[in-house]
Amino acid sequence: MDVATVKKKVIVVMGATGAGKSRLALSLASHFPAVEIINADSMQVYRGLDVLTNKITPAESQGVPNHLLGNIDPSVEFTCKDFRDLAIPIIDDVLSRNRLPIIVGGTNYYIQALVSPYLADDVVEDMAEDSRISRLTDVDLNDINSASAFKLLNEIDPIAANRIHPNDQRKIQHYLSLYSTSGILPSTLFLGDTSRKWGRADNFRYNCCFIWVDAALPLLDRYVNDRVDSMIAAGLLNEVFDIYKPKSDYTRGLKQAIGVREFDEFFRAYFAADSSWVNSLTNDQVSSDDANMFTKPKLSGILNSHDSNTLRALLIEAIDKFKANTRKLLRRQRRRLNRLKSDFGWKMQYIDATKAFQDESDNSWSVWVVEPCVKIVRSFLLEQPGFLSSTGAPYNVLHLTSKDLCTQYVCEACGNRVLRGAHEWEQHRRGRVHKKRASRLNKCQRTFSVDQQAAKSADGELNSTFCNSP
What we know:
By secondary structure, the protein is of the alpha/beta class. The protein is built from 20 helices and 8 strands.
């Protein structure tokens, strides 16, 4: 093979939130001293909310360089294209110094954008100059809610609307913004090489060793619940307090992070109850630092209070929402990782950390997670027999491109839940919850049908009686 065509090797550690990605990357760094870590978490790239976003601390890093960690202005929208454009020069620099880049994160579309040389956003600039499509000039995208935004997208570009979930506010806003600024129908980007090749295993920018660290779902659920409690104890409420503003836009920047909007109702009630704090700010009688000094101590006391007041109830409810939404996130992340395998052909080295989570000791983590991963990375770097890297075998391109990724399925039994693609629909249809709801719906429909027939029969008998009366 021509040396110029040999792809540089990178390690990619993936997994759902709470699975131990950062811990594994640091463990690998202790076995491969030339490691530098590139963060690929869409919330950890922002400055601020270090506790809530679970950033690695300098003490935990132990001197291992961490790139793209807390660098981005929290008010800006940082896209996968922005991430890619910043990450590639960093990775190239790490490689040029004969060091090993380990890309770590649960934001799969960031990693897809990074490893794939094809990205839909790149086509926009080329197409915009030739566009003849009228643009949105009289709509402020920030002022429309999720349902209205999806309806608008469906009117403008039904093909694009059919590709995404009606509640996927990020993508809806992205598509509308694309149309508003460039006049390009988003669906035009789904045509040609960009759509067919984006994120596919046969077109990677690097020679990638993908490590997927995972554990049994009940253990991950318990872990993220405990982690939220630890975050509260470590000052999470103070972090959210510092960035809280009434009527905030929770669809942009750092405020998208799970654990921010969940506390909105609590803080609205908190500030309304603390009228002296509001008045002091209104009359400019107390500085912001003084206000923080007077109000922040109250936050830690509310949760520990034995009083059954409204604020405490709202705070407990907010924490429960935070935990529930984090559990939902880890399920979405696991589904997306499975899609990368089944629909895009990614070859992943699966590491089951279940026993390490059960034992919770450093030795167990080393035995069940670190040691297998060290062997995987060493085999990958040395190209030992038996290791299949991302460029190690041909892929069934026909199989990959024939996947049904666009068709939407609506499940009536589960409250008209929308599923994308045949694979996601089949997974949902086989689920225990769906089967119970479908059975209940069918039973109700049968009962309704029987009742209707009985009613018709009764009406017929009544009419017959009247007709035969003398």
